Amino acid sequence: MSGVFTPLNDYFDGIFVITLDGYEARQNSIKQNMQGLNFEFWFGTDKRELDDSVLLDNSQYDNESHQNIKRTHRSMSLSEYACACSHRRIYQHMLDNNLRRVLIFEDDAVPDLQELNHFAQRIATLPEDWKVVLFDYYGSHYENTKGLLKRQIYKLFHYLRISNWHTVSLSLIDKMLMRPYNTHFYLAGRLSGAHAYSLSLDAAKYYCDYQQPVKLQADRIFYYAEGLNSNRVFACKKPMFLRGELSEVSSIQKQR
């Protein structure tokens, strides 16, 4: 198994697995499934060590921006806030240590060894200045009849100010669909999931600044944060890492 991870070890300047104290079973599973991968555990921000009052502190969490950006009146939960902080701390670590590109996954990720065998070949098809590569995700829409119709409806909602869609920029609505880039990758549209992705130093700087204070969930910045070149944010057509529990909510966000 170890040989399949060699190209990843060679390509990335750091590989981090976000986990929490008390999740030894998950950590042992990672050790077993990732033998040969040069990763280190990154112990994230634990909501059990936070007080709900942090969500009322505008210097830590910008609820107004969150509601406007996300077109929702729901505030972030403490778990979502803690998860966002965990990822932001890795971005800061990249800046502090000048890590050009890193791989990040959460402790419920499982490698798809068959797809990872093609990592070196596929990553070489991307431009050198890629910003983000998502190796798995969910909740995406594509340039098919259903997706194109949905996008037109959202544009209509924007103009008619229905369901708060007027707060979502037309540029975001325009790029909501996954757009084919080449045989192996999409240009990323609207999606969910931060359980397996890589990012460049440029992206780390932008996202670190953007999340000071926290405005979005860790996986929402890839779509909603508009200051990064969206033509350099990519998503695999075939996932290389999978969510081990097949859950649409990150285990780091659950923080049981």
Our estimate of the beta-strand percent is 15-25%
Going by helix content, strand content and strand pairing, the class is: alpha/beta
What sort of overall outline do the alpha carbons produce when their principal axes are compared? globular
- Reading off the top of the CATH hierarchy, the class is best stated as Alpha Beta
| Number of helices, counting only DSSP H or I runs of 4 residues or more | 11
* CATH topology description: Spore Coat Polysaccharide Biosynthesis Protein SpsA, Chain A
Radius of gyration: 18 Å
Helix content: 25-40%
Number of discrete domains: 1
Task: Give the second-level CATH assignment, the architecture.
Answer: Alpha-Beta Complex
Give the ordered list of helices and strands: HEHEHHEEHHEHHEEEHHEEH
Largest sheet: 8 strands, mixed
Instruction: Give the mean pLDDT.
Output: 92
Q: What separation lies between the terminal Cα atoms?
A: 31 Å
**Oligomer description:** single chain
Strand order of the largest sheet: 2-1-3-8-5-9-7-6
Number of strands: 10
**Uncertain segments of ≥5 residues (pLDDT<50)?**
246-251
